[in-house]
């Protein structure tokens, strides 16, 4: 019988396989690391509130760490990934923010908010053409009444990007 060494002694290969299968089944059923660690909903909310306060206090690096932890332990709650993206965006870590917003979009394709912020990041990287394309998609996706304010903001950003592109083009000629 083979054994696996750990900090508390040894575990038989059979026990290790059984535990591994239970953990895998937990994840297949939609379970999270937070569930396995025994983190309660109240603890998640307290951590989220702490991350939000860090973000609101311009402590983006610290906020990003807490949001990243939350996102790892409960990847089903989009607020955590959105907070991570916003923190990275404020740090001008464009690619990291875009990755977080991409995950947000995958978690809820009907919400145009992450796509809006992604377009801002693409513009921040200096790629106005792609940013305009993304922002135009945001405008098209803002159909629900609760997204009308975002639609107006996206439309205004789209117009600003078009004016900037026109100025850049006229300066080159």
Description:
A two-stranded antiparallel ribbon has the order 1-2. The longest helix is centred in the C-terminal third of the chain and has 25 residues, at 148-172. A hairpin with a 2-residue loop joins strand 1 and strand 2 (9-12). The chain is mostly helical and 173 residues long. The protein contains 9 helices and 2 strands, in the order ββααααααααα. The chain is elongated and about 75 Å long. Helices cover 75% and strands 5% of the residues.
Question: How do the helices and strands line up, and which of them pair or pack?
Answer:
Blueprint: E1 3-6, E2 9-12, H1 13-28, H2 33-37, H3 41-56, H4 60-73, H5 78-90, H6 94-107, H7 113-124, H8 128-141, H9 148-172
What structural keywords apply?
173 residues; mainly alpha; two-stranded antiparallel ribbon; 5% strand; elongated
Structure, briefly:
The protein has 173 residues and is mostly helical.
Q: How far from one another are the termini?
A: 78 Å
Shape category:
elongated
The largest β sheet comes out as: 2 strands, antiparallel
Spatial arrangement of strands, main beta sheet: 1-2
Mean pLDDT: 87
Instruction: Detail the poorly predicted runs.
Output: none
Structural class: mainly alpha
Residue fraction in strands:
under 5%
Helicity, as a percent range: over 70%
Radius of gyration: 22 Å
User: Helix and strand string, N-terminal first?
Assistant: EEHHHHHHHHH
Beta-strand segment tally: 2
């Amino acid at each position: 019988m083979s054994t696996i060494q750990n900090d508390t002694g040894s575990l038989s290969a059979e026990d290790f396989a059984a535990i591994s299968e239970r953990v895998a089944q937990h994840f297949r059923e939609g379970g999270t690391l937070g569930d396995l660690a025994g983190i309660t909903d109240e603890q998640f909310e307290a951590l989220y509130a702490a991350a939000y306060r860090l973000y609101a206090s311009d402590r983006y690096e610290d906020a990003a760490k807490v949001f990243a932890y939350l996102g790892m332990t409960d990847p089903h709650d989009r607020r955590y990934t959105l907070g991570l993206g916003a923190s990275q965006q404020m740090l001008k870590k464009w690619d990291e923010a875009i990755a977080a917003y991409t995950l947000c979009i995958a978690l809820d394709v009907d919400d145009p908010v992450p796509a809006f912020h992604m377009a801002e990041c693409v513009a921040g990287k200096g790629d106005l053409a792609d940013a305009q394309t993304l922002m135009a998609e945001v405008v098209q996706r803002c159909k629900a009444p609760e997204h009308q304010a975002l639609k107006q903001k996206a439309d205004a950003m789209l117009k600003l990007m078009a004016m900037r592109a026109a100025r850049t083009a006229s300066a080159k000629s």
